[in-house]
């Protein structure tokens, strides 16, 4: 495919849908960016500038077309103590360093780790994010006037019913326009975007963080940068997988990792905080018709236009309109089918999904929740593989020789069962251990073989180990010690 064909596919193949979707996303980004700035303890313009820069840069550098990246709560919450203790400039420096770490991760092909995230973990991640998105709207729904509830209900009605009339215009955009008009005409007592904070009126400018270039500064910002880089990549790669599934297309996870790093470096140099992919805004984009890089670019560029030219107008948008959109995102993001699947899927898979949801919602820490899910998946997988391991034996040659047949995977979870199957007290002249139907995976498996051979030799039996496949023979040659001088004393002497 030629360069021109690639450009047309990635940028011009869905013009109307991408432009309209980008406009909707830009409008929805404003209150979130302001809210995330408050979480980080910085001026609203820091989150807004970050959203502009990251969205524009990632549209060129990212590996997942139509995915929206901007300032996020996942990264903002990590910066609170840094800003409180050291100030804004250290946040900017930490953002730049986080970008450098993400580029390095992309070069190291960290995208490959996604293969270790099971479907249960991904479903739990999606459901947890849907719950968090809904919970984030509760401050706008508690202790408010009845007009707010009526406006939110009207917004949801527009979002879900307008597509029955036409899909030419995204229903979330219609929701914003209609509810803004109603609020102005009737003078309703509802909160607006302007109530969240002042919108910036100047373009972001290139700057250098005013921090000392010293090892002391590095040690201050490195823990924050590493955490932001890890959480940002994790959320971005998981969101990329979700958008892949929604659009039936593929993405380049390693390019996305590098792209996130480039975007964060640019954000830091333009006075913005670190960000990453946003599942809520990405869902809005895709459901509004966005499919290519153009939709992401329009989201960032139109957000800048809104701030610079239409700031006063944007401030009039009623919060119930944006709350209705985010509730729609929450409902659309949640995997409702997973509730029914709880009754049919294996209990271990359901437990992994529920543990991921509970951890993320309880801690508001996406990385911790996914880590718990992946850890449980690994433990359950190891346990299941260990269950299909067995050792059988046959006594031959007048009771003086025994053949052991090992079947299955010999590793840390099955090594104990392997040793328990051996009768080291039996008086034998010769022992034959056949591993032709087994695979030795790790140091614990090798150690179990060593232990068995040495114990039989200590009892006076000649031991023959047969049937190793090439991979098992390689790890045994590298790590086994049973044929080394003094191995018996070293392993069994204590």
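-> sequence recovered:
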């Amino acid at each position: 495919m030629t360069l021109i064909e690639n450009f047309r596919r990635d940028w011009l193949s869905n013009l109307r849908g991408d432009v309209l979707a980008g406009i909707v996303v830009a409008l929805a980004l404003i209150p979130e960016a302001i809210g995330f700035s408050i979480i980080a303890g910085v001026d609203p313009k820091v989150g807004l500038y970050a959203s502009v820069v990251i969205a524009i840069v990632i549209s060129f550098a990212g590996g997942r077309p139509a995915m929206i990246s901007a300032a996020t709560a996942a990264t903002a919450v990590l910066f609170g103590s840094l800003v409180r203790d050291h100030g804004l400039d250290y946040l900017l420096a930490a953002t730049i360093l986080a970008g450098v770490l993400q580029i390095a991760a992309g070069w190291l092909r960290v995208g490959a780790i996604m293969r270790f995230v099971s479907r249960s973990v991904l479903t739990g991640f999606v459901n947890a994010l849907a719950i968090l998105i809904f919970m984030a709207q509760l401050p706008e729904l508690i202790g408010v006037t009845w007009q707010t509830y009526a406006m939110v209900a009207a917004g949801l009605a527009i979002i879900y019913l307008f597509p029955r009339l036409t899909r030419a215009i995204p229903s979330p955009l219609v929701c914003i326009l209609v509810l803004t008009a109603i609020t102005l005409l009737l003078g309703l007592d509802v909160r607006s975007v302007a109530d969240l904070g002042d919108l910036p009126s100047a373009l972001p400018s290139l700057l250098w963080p005013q921090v000392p270039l010293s090892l002391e500064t590095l040690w201050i910002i490195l823990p924050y940068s590493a955490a932001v880089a890890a959480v940002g990549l994790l959320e971005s790669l998981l969101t990329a997988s979700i958008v892949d599934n929604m659009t039936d297309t593929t993405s380049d996870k390693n390019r996305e990792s590098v792209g996130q790093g480039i975007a964060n470096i640019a954000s830091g140099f333009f006075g913005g905080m670190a960000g990453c992919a946003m599942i809520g805004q990405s869902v809005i984009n895709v459901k509004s018709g966005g499919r290519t890089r153009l939709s992401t670019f329009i989201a960032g560029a139109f957000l800048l236009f809104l701030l610079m030219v239409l700031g006063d107008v944007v401030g009039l948008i009623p919060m119930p309109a944006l709350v209705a959109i985010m509730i729609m995102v929450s409902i659309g993001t949640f995997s409702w089918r997973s509730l029914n699947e709880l009754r049919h899927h294996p209990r271990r898979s359901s437990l992994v999904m529920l543990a991921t949801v509970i951890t993320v919602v309880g801690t508001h820490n996406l990385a911790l929740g996914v880590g718990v899910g992946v850890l449980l998946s690994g433990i359950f997988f190891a346990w299941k593989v260990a269950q299909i391991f067995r050792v059988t034996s046959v006594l031959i040659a007048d009771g003086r020789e025994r053949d052991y047949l090992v079947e299955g995977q010999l590793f840390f979870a099955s090594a104990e069962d392997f040793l328990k199957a051996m009768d080291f007290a039996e008086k034998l002249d010769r022992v034959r251990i056949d591993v032709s139907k087994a695979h030795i995976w790790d140091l614990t498996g090798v150690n179990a073989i060593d232990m068995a051979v040495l114990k039989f030799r200590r009892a006076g039996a000649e031991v023959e180990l047969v049937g190793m496949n090439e991979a098992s023979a390689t790890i045994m040659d590298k790590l086994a010690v049973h044929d080394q001088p003094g191995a018996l004393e070293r392993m069994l002497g204590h």
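The chain has 21 helices and six strands.
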